[in-house]
Amino acid sequence: MATRSTIMDTNSFRAEHAAGLDANLRKLTDKRQKLLGESYRLFYRKPVHLVRGEGQYLWDAAGEKYLDVYNNVASIGHCHPAVIEAVHQQMQRLNTHTRYLHEAILDYSEALLATMPAAIDRAMYMCTGSEANDLAIRVARAYSGGSGIIVSQEAYHGTSELTSGVSPALGSGQPLAATTRLVPPPDRYRVNAPDLGTWFATQIQRQIDDMQAHGIKFAGFLADSIFSSDGVLPDPRGFLQQAIEVVHNNGGIFIADEVQPGFGRTGEAFWGFARHGVVPDIVTTGKPMGNGIPVSGLLAKSEVLAAFSDAIPYFNTFGGNPVSMAAAQAVLKVIHEEQLQEHSRVVGAKLLAELKTLMDKYDCVGDVRGAGLFIGFELVADRENKTPDKALALDVVEQLRDNHVLTSVAGPYGNVLKLRPPLAFQEQDIDWLVGALDRSLAALGR
Amino acid sequence: MATRSTIMDTNSFRAEHAAGLDANLRKLTDKRQKLLGESYRLFYRKPVHLVRGEGQYLWDAAGEKYLDVYNNVASIGHCHPAVIEAVHQQMQRLNTHTRYLHEAILDYSEALLATMPAAIDRAMYMCTGSEANDLAIRVARAYSGGSGIIVSQEAYHGTSELTSGVSPALGSGQPLAATTRLVPPPDRYRVNAPDLGTWFATQIQRQIDDMQAHGIKFAGFLADSIFSSDGVLPDPRGFLQQAIEVVHNNGGIFIADEVQPGFGRTGEAFWGFARHGVVPDIVTTGKPMGNGIPVSGLLAKSEVLAAFSDAIPYFNTFGGNPVSMAAAQAVLKVIHEEQLQEHSRVVGAKLLAELKTLMDKYDCVGDVRGAGLFIGFELVADRENKTPDKALALDVVEQLRDNHVLTSVAGPYGNVLKLRPPLAFQEQDIDWLVGALDRSLAALGR
Q1: Pairwise CA distance, residues B413 & B428, whole Å
Q2: With A185 labelled, which of A260, A422, B369, B373 sits at a CA distance of 20 to 30 A?
């Protein structure tokens, strides 16, 4: 099984590269090594020192401009004025916790729940996706009476003890929980099956059976419906339906981790799960929700949530505070007003088509797939055997950096470029990105 | 053992009270019950609908002004202009994660570590105190090779699965982890021992021995050094020393949870542990760190942290981002410039003295104790037997609310008023608070 491709080996800065850096970068990397825990990793052999952001662009300390095709936190665009203004206004008025009454959390909950299937009718707020998934697993266990959680083989769901135990992407240093079971990625490019949905449902059933054989009662299936860490696996739409039926038939619940595909990202739907026509029991949100302000959410069917909240107290001090809610409300408003979901669909489709033209030019491009502005660009050593070429992918990431395009890799083999720009990415940015990719592959002799 | 006093039963609003509310409050409470998870609890039989804050004051929708003597998140004062400005400036420039270089996290780490003992030389950032404590326990386990964690009997350390399992304050609905052991509160008012330090160290050793008998290797002792949830237990300074020696002699580490006593709160020291003259192996921070912006930290000895971070990846998307760091840096600067630690010491001592005068007037005031602006005011049914009077404490909290003073209760019996105002609390606020307490006790016939 793959280890650490997504989380650890993304061209992280290593001390041996420090010698070649200019004085400013050297000073900052030295300080990091002196002051921060060793867990802190930098992207790139030559790290980027960013000082400014706007829309889809970032600038470094030397004034160089970069096209950001990686960061979905600044989902509606870096430094979006609507979020800045909403936060500034609310910070001047009040920022306190949810044990006093305040309109903001209620108005936002109404707006957010309105984007969900009617069955999902309750909202709770935390600060990070990890916190949302940690709570979601606890709710799943309280409701099902089981403990077993199924995730995909390269899944990443968070940094807490509980969520790390369901995050194989963290690699062999982080043991999975004894109650965790893995299913292989539903990867249409690599899985040879007449019907991906049937195949994937069978994989789920197999792991439920394995749990049962070990005396572990099944609690639920936790998945990011675009399988981001598994290499971005969007197709075919609807393939999740049979799997979710299996989950429900076995008494488990489906937790849709929308930290990656949510908030209009996939273009085809506001939520990733909706692309598949399934209704989750719990939805978790995070990264893009506040455009950088730490806010996350857990949305659930009331009967599922009640099993937990009737018994166990939960209070998140910062969660749902008026400033977080102001940021989240501004993000939601901008997505609607600027029609960013539709924008993601249209521009994403054009970008996907342009990227696919590189397949004609370079044999190393094995597959290009995506939904909206979330695209996986898979590099292989040879097309016939689909041999993953991780080294090439990492080299391309470095080349792209030199071409002032920021991105990173994903997938169990670390050979898939993850192209996930702020939704502010425009049609005119396509040439920059595709041109840079073209030059990078050419420069690497492909 | 006590259950749910601190977290659950703090006069939370219940549906049966809704009938008596005015239309606006009724509308908001109805909406909450419809939209939010049942875990959301309101303070007070008649909830407070807050719309504005400034310094130590809060205002409700009707324009009524309240003295806040409870909230330590807005530690340097509600809506402090320095934090508003720092966040606004940084939000206009850049807000992204720590895999690119940025000065803010480094400058802040230097400033923060400078307030710590030299042995604590590494910083990491998360978004909530729960995340910091969750990671701290994982680090303690990685370093010690053990799993057993000791906490105090009414401790509260967070909302994640791992931290909930070391939070007996959550009550019987939330099971403690099998590896958790509890020590009784080091309560000078109730414990009859010639030397509290020796007594407490003995309690720690007893639990380590019990772990050993169960085949559980000791990992560490996790404590808030002012024992906030146990009823605010600051005295005598230094009593923790023997306990920490026992912890170290048994191969465990000491995690100082500074979410409550940190950042100048106790007046006598910048950190709660420093009042006791001990050096923790890990320090966790949270609530007051960003004055409401979700930011928390884990500070540790590098050799302790390395045991974890060499093996296990950890990346917190929002943790340490430039906006969080700008807020945290502003808070630190204000504490120094406005000399809030000294302010807390001086004003806290005056407040404590005034509160103690109520002991002469009311027999029900069993004990008043504190450090800086963190005071416990304990109510008893009779002084001789020190019988806790929780019902009275809850009634006083409601009376105080009617006198426009906001606070709540703590302690295993829920009979201790927790007086922990923003550090912006001034000498001239003492009369309001003490007068309101006086009137409340008189009105309740004491």
Answers
A1: 31
A2: A422
